[in-house]
Amino acid sequence: MEYNDGERPQVHCLECGDEIGYGRPDRKFCSDKCRNRYHNRRNNPVSSARIKALNAIEKNYGILTAMLACGVSSASLTELEAAGFNPSSCSSCARCGCHLELRCFDLSYLMSSSRIFRLKKAGPEWVGRKK
Ligand SMILES: [Zn+2]
To answer: What is the pLDDT of residue 1?
Structure first.
């Protein structure tokens, strides 16, 4: 096998679209999880939409978690979408005044037509709370 660091063309995971920055040049997936999901979906088209939705929510969660880790609680949708964020994917949502409060598992944020803001991690009492 030939390993090549630095000069290889950008390779993206067939499942999540993340860049694969290491490994064999013919690698198609960033992880075993992505490879399994990709093949499960191909073999079972009925669950395809569900898996795709879960992937999008998990990808959003990763992006939002990274923002919080950097102390960032707001960002434009343009920037977020460039990073792979899907504004229409969340685990739940509720109207909060004139904005939508969206939740991505234990994270919550408000969304306007152009940005998300007030991103925060919820306390344990908040997760699973009744409406
Ligand atoms: Zn992947």
So the answer is: 44
**Residue 99: its pLDDT value, please?**
81
- How many Å lie between the centroid of ligand 1 and the Cα of residue 96? 34
Q: In what order do the strands lie in the sheet with 107-111?
A: 75-76, 115-121, 107-111, 99-104, 92-96
Query: Residue 98 C-alpha to ligand 1 middle, in angstroms?
Result: 36
Please give the distance, rounded to the nearest whole angstrom, from the Cα atom of residue 125 to the centre of ligand 1: 32
Summarised one tens digit per residue, pLDDT across range 91-103 is 998 888 888 899 9
128 CA distance to ligand 1 middle (Å):
28
Q: What is the pTM of this model?
A: 0.65
